[in-house]
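Quick question about two entries, pasted in order.
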Amino acid sequence: MQHRYPVNLRHRDADLLGVNADRWVSVGVARAQDDVAAATARAVAEARAGRPAALVLVMARWDLDLGAVAAGAHAAAGGAAVVGTSTGTVFARGGQQAADVVVTAVGGPGVSVGTGASTAADPHARGVEAVTACGNAGRAHSTVLLLPTGTDGQQQAVVRGAYSVLGPAVPLVGGGSDGDMARRVTWQLHGREVVENGLVAVRLDTDRPVGVGTGHGLARTGEPMVVTDSDGLLVRGLDGRPALDAYLERLGVRAEDGVDAAALAPLGFAHPLALVRRRREEVRTVVGMDVAARSLEFVSEVPPGSLVSVMSGGQEDMLAGAVGACADAVAGLGGAEVAGMVVFSCIARRELLSHEGRLGEARAALSAAAGPEVVLNYSCGEIARVSGAAGCHNQTVVALAL
């Protein structure tokens, strides 16, 4: 499935935009009552403000009528590309306003957009098909936004598929859809269509760079270990020992103390593992511990032979990580003022910060770092690839600055 949306119309207020005369970003919000389509259309109209947009990015609460959301967005988009993702929690305008539907509109003469979608059963093929459909407008810079399902634990395979098409020069950024996790179903929007457990890709071709930043604020605990037995999502061995025993030892918990799975569960969010890469760590959330099998379960791939570390960090560290991600994204603009920002933050971070009542502070920190036109979506897995073929993250903040 493919759409291309070249936009070469100059913003009517370009002279007021200074260094951002080639692009603009604006946000609209809606509280969906009885007429979801109408509410969504109002949010799109608010974001566009009568301007021709290249992209309308919709984040909508997953329990809404998403077909009506897609219809309302398409009706008000004025020919712009419409893409979107289902979500459980999304904030607009510096994180100060929660909404049922949040719309980010992007336009200007320096922006062209192509979109694609795939529901291929194989996740690598999903990445290939969706990104190939986006095409290439031939501008100086390209960045691809990926909106994958958050249910299948295969986001790294999706990234590899996208990378096989795009190569190392095109950054990837995005976040996994939240949804009905009891049924393991999420949704994405592509034009008028609602895609179930698939992938939607957006290629942003621009005359000057956009910025991608990542941060988690966590630090390594103890020496790294080698994954010696794993099928990807289930790790059975670390350093040749039962994985759970080696993990608990790093945290000072003795396996012989007879702790049960319920008592261990909070440790998984507080102390994830991370794949140790050359320039960074890629965090992997521990979502299950099998006391009988002595194994660890993850939502993203932990391949055999990987070097991993147990990670730890407090509330202040997590807040600093979020601010750092936004700062790095802004730095990627090459000195231009940020017009707007889309931020993906892991739902695990939301849970950890909510326990200490720090969510409001976290949103305020993002607003201070990113400016008023910022959207914060809590995602199921985050994507940021700026070097190498890897780029799947958990418990991380990923920021796209425009």
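Here is the second entry:
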Amino acid sequence: MPDVVEKIKNAGAARISASPGIGSVGGAMAPLIDHTLLKPDASAADVEKLCREAREFVFASVCVNPCNIKLAASLLEGSKVKVCSVVGFPLGANKKEIKAYEARKAVLEGACEIDMVMNVGALKSGDCRLVEQDMQDVREACGRKVITKVILETALLTDEEKITACQLAMKAGMDFVKTSTGFGPGGATVEDVRLLRTVVGEGMGVKASGGIRDTETAARMVEAGATRIGASASVKIVGGQD
């Protein structure tokens, strides 16, 4: 699938390499993947395994709960893999001051990327000012060197609401819009990724997350416009054993 590999390269995977036995598409996908472990029962041993896999396959980042940031940062020190964490997760209904504090604390403890959850209820209530300020406060708390992504939880939104959310994210200065937490009523769809990409254009990242468990699905998301993939089945996606 050379056309898919080219799209993956254009999405940000400038260096295409793979270990023996890893298919070209899966191997090319690794630099786009946030290797994710957000289960409430994740143990220190689980985090260690996550980071070991991330080092081996050179994923873009590991995405962990805030309590595991320090451990992940210590395990990945000296590697190319970044530490990503979540804010207002998984509901997005925290007060904006709490989200900003949580983001600031996460960065101080070693997070280089932040995935915050949008206040879905505020958007549905028509309070666009609160939604935008919520995002902007997290953006400012992180500083410009930290990549910020906002999770829209697209399965809860109408297409009109998805468009509005993307426009607010752009105004707030977020770096990515992201489809799902993985804890909501649905995950990423090709249609949603394509819609988000259409709204934000080429100047912003789109992260597809939720229910992506194989190479074919991940490749379809990239073809639709995703520049990052969030997955817990990352090793399987790149062609390893999971």
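Reply: The longest strand covers residues 82-87. DSSP finds eleven helices and eight strands in the chain. Hope that helps.
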